[in-house]
Every structure is written in structure tokens, then in C-alpha cells.
């Protein structure tokens, strides 16, 4: 008879390689880098970006946003990222589950209808 041998699973240890010493410091305590802050123009562009991508800004604001994202790499990247995200979401059917109580009520109606018919 074989006893059940407990096999000690060896979990490979992940070597911790801090790529950036700043990673050891919580983000709220890290000094802000110049690249972390957005200019007032970038702030304005970010506010309008979602509406711009959806063609829901007026012509003046649309022209301004277009001009800004052509000149500003970060906002241009944000605009492309947003378009990619929206395209991905449009191609995705996100299943929506009905609340449990609604499902139970509908199932009960099926059962009742079957018993009556
Ligand atoms: Zn910008």
C-alpha cells in the first residue's frame, strides 16, 4: 500500500530586480518629475479628448484639440490610446448578468407556464 507522499512544491523565487529605485518609494511620496505634470493646454485637451474622439465637440474646440494633439506627443498618445480602447470595446460583447432575483423570477415564470400548459 502506498502512503500518500506529500510532495513539497518548490516555488521558484522571483528575484526582485528593482528597475527603478523610485519603485521602492510610495508614489504619493515620490518627488514629482517635470514630465509628470501637464501644461494647462494639456489639461484642456484631456478634458475635451473623450468628446473629441466621439465627434461631440464644436468645430472651434475640435480644431484646437486636433492642433494640440498634433504638436503634443503625450496628448497624441493619449488620443490614440483612447481610440484603440474604444475600438476594442466596440468589438467586445460584454456579458451583462441579470440580477439574481430577476433571473429567479423569470425562471419561476417559465416553470409556472410549463406546468399550466
Ligand atoms: Zn498635451
What percent of residues adopt helix (DSSP H or I)? Answer: 40-55%
What distance lies between the first and last C-alpha atoms, to the nearest angstrom? 59 Å
Helical segment tally?
Answer: 4
- H-E order: HHHH
- Main sheet specs: none
- Average pLDDT: 81
Task: Name the bound molecules.
Answer: zinc ion
User: Measured on Cα atoms, how large is the radius of gyration?
Assistant: 27 Å
Shape: flat
Percent of residues in β-strands? under 5%
Instruction: Report the structural category.
Output: mainly alpha
Count of extended strands: 0
Low-confidence stretches: none
Oligomer: single chain
Q: What would you say about this model in short?
A:
Helices cover 53% and strands 0% of the residues. With 117 residues, it is mainly alpha-helical. It contains 4 helices and no strands.
Your description of this structure?
By secondary structure, the protein is mainly α. It has a domain at 38-91. The chain has four helices and no strands. The protein has helices at residues 40-53, 59-71, 73-90, 100-116. Helix 1 (40-53) packs across helix 2 (59-71). The longest helix has 18 residues, at 73-90. The model has no long low-confidence stretch (mean pLDDT 81). It binds zinc ion (ZN). The site of zinc ion has 7 residues, from helix 1 and helix 3.
